[in-house]
Structure of Response regulatory domain-containing protein:
Amino acid sequence: MKVLLVDDSGVMRKIIARGLNSLWVDEVVEAADGVEALEKFGDGVGFDLILTDWNMPNMNGLELIQSIRGAGHKLPIMMITTESEKSQVLLAIQAGVNDYLVKPFDQDMLQMKLERVLPNPATA
């Protein structure tokens, strides 16, 4: 399984990537903001999931989701962020996010959310 991980914090990307690699993820492609994420995403072929932060420079996570959904891509997208206000969650859902994980979180919560958005995560 190949995941696009988008977060402006290099430390947070490393922590999340380590968690993903300890599960069933084969490859984690990292990006520091939405602009870099779109460049790495390209036509989307080969990616199984996008995990994105909300608050980032240049292009935030909400704008990234809107861009990807606007281009017709259907792959699962999970927002991983400190934004926990109900209005923020609703905005993300309206933009097309499949699930929402509030920082900080533990490995078990990450795994549970991944299992919820991916039909057969171990074989994706």
In short: The longest strand covers residues 2-6.
